[in-house]
Amino acid sequence: MPFDKKILTEGDLINIFVSIELDGFWSDNRGSVALGTDISKHQKLIEASKQILYKAIHNIKGGISISDIGYLIATEVKKRGFKAIKNLTGHGIGRSLHEGPSEIANFRDKYNRTRFEKNSVVVIETFISTTSTYAETLKDDWTIIGNKGGFMAQHEHTIIVTDGKPIVLTEMNEIWN
Fold first, then answer.
1. What are phi and psi of 87, to 5 degrees?
2. What is the mean pLDDT of residues 60-87?
3. Which of 31, 101, 133, 170 is the most buried (most CB within 10 A)?
4. Buried b vs exposed e over 79-94: b needs ≥16 C-beta within 10 Å?
């Protein structure tokens, strides 16, 4: 267990991450929350991550450029006064945890010409920060921190891309609503 000596306290910002495999198919779901009372004032960051995720999801359909969704996310992040993490991305998912498309970035990647394909299953992730633009993993191979400090929040859903509104396979429950 990565945190066998870490005691969580009131107001800590944590990220709950669940990957599940059922009958050979994978799904991802994640959300950031402040423990108990938000004494450290993380709610604005948490809400921005969640709202931007839903805005991105509702703009995805078959044929839409992945880079355009990255641009939408980056624009919304900047509008709210935060920074997008550039080295953590969404991805395809299905018979394995990570499939193509391999990078659904939180910024406009001008080199990514890939488009969302109808009936594909993907994970859309918003990973945003108060000050950092890159995430670094600590020696415990679990804890992620920002390259310039600050705080980070993330939300993600697994969706099926359609010709219209995507089907969200991992609706968030009351813990981060």
1. -110, 10
2. 97
3. 31
4. eeebbbbbebbbbbbb
Q: Could you give the CA distance from residue 113 to residue 37 in angstroms, rounded to a whole number?
A: 43
- Kindly list the structural domains of the chain, giving each domain's residue range(s) and its CATH number in brackets, ordered by start: 21-176 (3.90.230.10)
pTM here is 0.90
First-to-last alpha carbon distance for the chain, in angstroms, is 27
Side chain identity, residue 162: T
Calculate the CA 160 to chain-centre distance.
Answer: 16
Q: Residue 99's CB: how many other CB atoms inside 10 A? A: 16
Q: Which residues contact 14 (CB under 8 A, 6 or more apart)?
A: 8, 32, 33, 34, 35
* pLDDT (average), residues 48-61: 96
Token pair, residue 11, equals 């107001």
Q: How many C-beta neighbours within 10 Å does residue 171 have?
A: 8
Quick one: angle between helices 43-57 and 66-79, nearest 10?
150
Compute the half-sphere exposure of residue 34: CA atoms within 13 Å on the CB side of its CA. 15
